[in-house]
Design goal:
The complex is a heterodimer of chains A (156) and B (132).
Chain A lengths: L3 E5 L9 H14 L9 E5 L16 E2 L2 H10 L2 H17 L3 E8 L7 E8 L4 H15 L5 H6 E5 L1
Parallel strand pairs in A: 1-2, 3-4, 5-6
Antiparallel strand pairs in A: 4-5
Helix pairs in contact in A: 3-4
Chain B lengths: L7 H10 L9 H27 L11 H9 L4 H22 L7 H25 L1
Classes of the chains: A alpha/beta (156), B mainly alpha (132).
Chain lengths: 156, 132
């Protein structure tokens, strides 16, 4: 099948992370049943330079609550480096995994908003827990207490 | 079709554990209960550990779950910090198991909390041994 051209007009919120925006769009299209899963698409996107706030430290993450995540990382700048490091170590421990970032209000944090990195993996659960444990032992000792207060890393 | 967890299942489980002749509770009900019980084993042991090493820490007020995991995360020792993070994660799973209406498979959450609780119990026992 020949690739079909398709162009996306992104919402202001989405163009902060064009790669994720395209990925989300393609996923919605496929999961929504409006396009056959086997279809091939060629996406193009025009992002006005003045509103492109893409953060390279967040490349490789699937960001669910985009504005909230960007604002949170902006508010706690140390998080950017920590996330880059976490992403590389998770890739090393888990191999392929989807890294979902989201701002959540959790009971353990008295419902205060925190950044949560959820690792979605196809590994069997026991293996995934071992990987998370190894990641934990390697990642957290080098992090400041402030990171531990702002970021939770767990399995999806 | 009911799209929320049927909370009466918890009563059915309690009755069934007491030997009442009720239908067997659903797997979701069992997994929510497993998540809860596994968490409390670790949480109460962790709280007791704080009382042993820092007896005045919570003298004047009852600690919340966050206070207990926060105490561990605030220590310099990496093992204690890890215990704190695992307690925090397990508490969030337990909270969902006890309060979230949405039916979902707690099979994964229950396995995860058992795994972390086993680790927490083991590490606290080791710490006690180290302290003599």
């Amino acid at each position: 099948m020949n690739p079909q051209p398709f162009s996306i007009v992104p919402q202001t919120d989405a163009i902060r992370d064009p790669i994720t925006a395209v990925h989300d769009f393609a996923e919605d299209l496929t999961l929504g049943g409006t396009a056959p899963a086997t279809a091939q698409w060629t996406f193009s996107m025009t992002v006005p330079a003045e509103v492109n706030h893409d953060n390279p430290q967040l490349v490789g993450f699937h960001i669910r609550t985009r504005s909230a995540v960007y604002d949170y990382v902006h508010m706690f700048p140390l998080l950017g480096d920590a996330l880059s490091r976490a992403r590389d170590m998770i890739r090393k421990q888990f191999g392929q995994a989807c890294l979902n970032l989201e701002i959540e209000r959790l009971p353990s944090e008295n419902w205060e908003p925190k950044l949560v990195l959820r690792i979605a993996t196809s590994l069997p659960l026991k293996e995934a827990l071992l990987c998370l444990d190894s990641f934990d032992r390697e990642f957290w000792p080098g992090q400041s207490t402030h990171i531990d207060e702002q970021l939770l890393i767990t399995l999806e | 079709m009911c799209d929320k967890f049927d909370w009466i299942q918890f009563l059915r489980l309690a009755q069934s554990m007491k030997g009442h002749p009720w239908p067997v509770p659903t797997p979701e009900c069992k997994n929510r209960t497993i998540t809860n019980r596994a968490y409390y084993a670790a949480y109460n042991l962790a709280k007791a550990y704080i009382d042993e090493v820092s007896p005045l820490r919570f003298r004047d007020d009852r600690p919340t779950h966050g206070d207990v995991s926060g105490w561990f995360r605030g220590q310099d020792d990496q093992v204690l910090k890890r215990i704190g993070r695992r307690l925090r994660d397990s508490y969030n799973r337990r909270h969902a198991a006890d309060y979230d209406n949405e039916p979902e498979s707690f099979a994964v959450a229950s396995e995860e909390v058992i795994y972390w609780s086993e680790q927490i119990v083991r590490e606290i026992m080791d710490k006690r041994e180290e302290a003599g």
